[in-house]
């Protein structure tokens, strides 16, 4: 019943704690060698889903397949998974070497095989000099490397990461992020990675599953998620600074469909609608700050007047907040271009990159 | 990194204006040693310490005096002639009923009660606390609540039924019976102690061990035990002092030849025949109290640490 190229398949998975529903009828197929990121704010069920895949939580209903084997009732150790935790979860009384070998010793593996695997894992992660130290004598980044090593030595099909970088400071986080990506490129294992950090999700993932209240909102590659969000939640969740939303309605002007808000009309030329745009429909127009052209960038398309409200220089970029047709919208421009508060600007939307959502259902149209 | 550079920048700025800083308060504020506050605090602490140490002083001093000196009645004066005769008598010769071999018999009885009771109760309680904290099963919360309620029921209520049960099993009056009783009554508080301690350890450690393939006993023995020395020390102290100091169960569940030390001490001190040998009584009391006292002195710091660790999370 499962596709042969799938590494992990989840079928109709539900989990309830008493009256609280954490996961609901969830289906998910993860391809062999794929890096899948489960992204969502806290409490959306992403860690719960990961724990179910690991076998640390029993689902109320549904099935889990790993490598086409139904593992729903299997013990965690029999599922062919390795897991890395946010708090590293290293055994404090054991040296790094003993931490790495614990699972293998429990499984009764011969000593020389254990030594071989530890040597391999510690050379991949460059933790050879640390092998005889206790976790307390390691820095956060080193601890997380050891934790990854513990999954590595088990030689598993699927790696599970539960917010592995959230306890690290910003600089280490970006370093380890690159290392995890490099690790995936060299190992080509299936990896499932839980995070609430959209930068981690966008940079690491082959596909991102955005979750909200136990339901996957959208499952796509990062570019599609970013440029064609399926609903308003996904659109607002991904992107920093976040997408501008303008509420208004569709109207007909001179034979073309336009978006109208507070008496201002915006041409929708270039927008690829998934449904027919019927005039009068209440909609929300979403435009990312970098998809708005200002003054000199305009190349003869439709433009509107706006007033600069606040300016936020961020080094490489400059974020300006503009008042336009009853809304305050943010626009990202080059860091060298500065505007005075109160200045008048001409701006135009890049409709090929914009999103239209139904005001009721908040689904993309 | 940014913080460090800002700090350095501020430091440089301060260097530049240092010459302009006026005289006046600077750096740490000096504190007076003999302030009124300090005198109050140390005075009260000193008085309290004196008050609690005085009885101990009287006991030690009296136990080192001969009977003629005791009869003089100066209980606070130090011994003029130090003698260890009362200690020897208390340990080896004092009479209780028909036996005249002193407290030594009671001491060894107490040891034979103490060692198995402490080991068995802590072994059982630590495993059940670990199970309750990490292997939640259906009804585990209810089981735990029932156990806690058990801690609040007065012992006296259960003595008579227990006597009957032990008699029916055929171990009433034996040391085995008393060991079982001590183990049972240690269970609620010890299980609570261990459960809270294990619940306070990071849950992810337990999960990691499960992914590594360790089972119930392997996680207990190889992950949890090595991390829980402080709570074991606390449990040992609670059990050693509690069981050693126990009088009620000792007198109810044993016979004269298996009386624990406390019961024997009572019999020595309260014997009505002949002269009241205060020096022997004091020595006997000190001997009986020595074990818990030594335990406290040896493990005081670990004890405080463990209590704090167990108390953090409920």
From TrEMBL, chain B:
Q: Where is the ABC transmembrane type-1 domain?
A: 107-299
Q: Which GO biological process annotations does it have?
A: transmembrane transport
**Protein's cellular compartments:** Cell membrane
- Residue spans crossing the bilayer: 39-60, 113-133, 142-163, 169-198, 219-244, 282-304
Chief location bin: membrane
Q: Which GO terms describe its cellular component?
A: plasma membrane
**Membrane topology, from the record:** Multi-pass membrane protein
Q: Offer one Pfam family short name for this entry.
A: BPD_transp_1
Q: Does the keyword Transferase apply?
A: no
Note the superkingdom of the native organism. Answer: Bacteria
Keywords associated with the record: Membrane, Transmembrane, Transmembrane helix, Transport
**SUPFAM superfamilies, per the entry:** MetI-like
Q: Which InterPro entries match?
A: MetI-like, MetI-like_sf
Q: Which family does it belong to?
A: Belongs to the binding-protein-dependent transport system permease family.
According to UniProt, the name of this protein is Glucose/mannose transport system permease protein
Natural source organism: Aliirhizobium cellulosilyticum
């Amino acid at each position: 019943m499962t596709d042969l190229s799938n590494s992990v398949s989840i079928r109709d998975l539900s989990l309830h704690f008493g009256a609280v529903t954490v996961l609901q009828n969830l289906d998910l197929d993860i391809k062999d060698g794929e890096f899948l990121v489960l992204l969502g704010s806290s409490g959306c069920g992403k860690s719960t889903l990961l724990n179910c895949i690991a076998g640390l939580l029993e689902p109320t209903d549904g099935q889990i397949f790993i490598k086409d084997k139904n593992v729903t009732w299997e013990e965690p150790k029999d599922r062919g998974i390795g897991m890395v935790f946010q708090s590293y979860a290293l055994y404090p009384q054991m040296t790094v070497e003993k931490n790495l070998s614990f699972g293998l010793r429990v499984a009764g593996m011969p000593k020389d095989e254990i030594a071989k695997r530890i040597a391999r894992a510690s050379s991949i992660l460059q933790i050879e000099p640390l092998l005889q130290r206790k976790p307390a004598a390691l820095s956060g980044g080193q601890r997380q490397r050891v934790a990854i090593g513990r999954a590595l030595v088990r030689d598993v099909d699927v790696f599970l990461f539960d917010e592995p970088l959230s306890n690290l400071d910003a600089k280490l986080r970006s370093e380890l992020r690159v290392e995890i990506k490099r690790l995936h490129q060299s190992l080509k294992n299936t990896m499932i990675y839980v995070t609430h950090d959209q930068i981690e999700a966008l940079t690491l993932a082959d596909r991102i599953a955005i979750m909200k209240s136990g339901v996957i909102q959208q499952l796509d590659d990062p570019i599609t998620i970013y440029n064609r969000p399926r609903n308003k939640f996904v659109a607002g969740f991904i992107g920093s600074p976040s997408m501008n939303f303008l509420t208004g309605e569709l109207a007909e002007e001179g034979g073309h469909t336009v978006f109208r808000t507070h008496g201002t009309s915006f041409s929708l030329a270039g927008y690829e609608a998934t449904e027919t745009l019927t005039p009068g429909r209440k909609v929300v127009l979403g435009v990312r700050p970098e998809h708005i052209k200002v003054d000199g960038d305009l190349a003869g398309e439709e433009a509107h007047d706006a007033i600069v409200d606040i300016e936020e220089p961020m080094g490489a970029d400059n974020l300006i907040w503009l008042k336009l047709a009853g809304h305050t919208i943010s626009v990202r421009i080059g860091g060298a271009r500065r505007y005075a508060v109160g200045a008048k600007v001409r701006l135009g939307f890049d409709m090929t990159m914009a999103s239209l959502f139904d005001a009721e259902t908040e689904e993309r149209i | 990194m940014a913080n460090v550079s800002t700090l350095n920048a501020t430091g440089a700025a301060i260097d530049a204006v240092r010459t302009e800083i006026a005289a006046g308060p600077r750096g740490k504020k000096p504190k007076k040693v003999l302030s009124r506050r300090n005198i109050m605090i140390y005075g009260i602490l000193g008085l309290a310490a004196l008050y609690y140490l005085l009885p101990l002083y009287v006991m030690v001093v009296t136990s080192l005096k001969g009977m003629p000196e005791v009869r003089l009645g100066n209980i606070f004066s130090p011994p003029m002639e130090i003698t260890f005769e009362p200690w020897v008598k208390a340990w080896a010769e004092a009479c209780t009923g028909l036996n005249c071999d002193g407290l030594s018999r009671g001491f060894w009885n107490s040891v034979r009660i103490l060692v198995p009771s402490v080991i068995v109760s802590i072994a059982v309680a630590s495993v059940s606390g670990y199970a309750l904290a990490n292997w939640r099963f259906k009804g585990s919360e209810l089981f735990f609540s029932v156990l806690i309620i058990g801690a609040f029921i007065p012992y006296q209520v259960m003595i008579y039924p227990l006597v009957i049960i032990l008699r029916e099993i055929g171990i009433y009056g034996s040391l085995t019976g008393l060991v079982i009783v001590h183990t049972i009554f240690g269970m609620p508080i010890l299980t609570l102690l261990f459960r809270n301690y294990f619940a306070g350890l990071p849950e992810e450690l337990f999960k990691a061990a499960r992914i590594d393939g360790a089972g119930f006993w392997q996680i207990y023995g190889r992950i949890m035990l090595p991390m829980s020395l402080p709570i074991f020390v606390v449990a040992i102290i609670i059990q050693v002092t509690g069981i050693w100091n126990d009088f009620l169960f000792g007198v109810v569940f044993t016979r004269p030849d298996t009386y624990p030390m406390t019961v024997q001490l009572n019999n020595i001190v309260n014997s009505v025949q002949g002269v009241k040998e205060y020096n022997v009584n004091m020595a006997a009391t000190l001997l009986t109290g020595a074990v818990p006292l030594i335990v406290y002195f040896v493990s005081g710091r670990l004890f405080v640490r463990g209590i704090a660790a167990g108390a953090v999370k409920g």
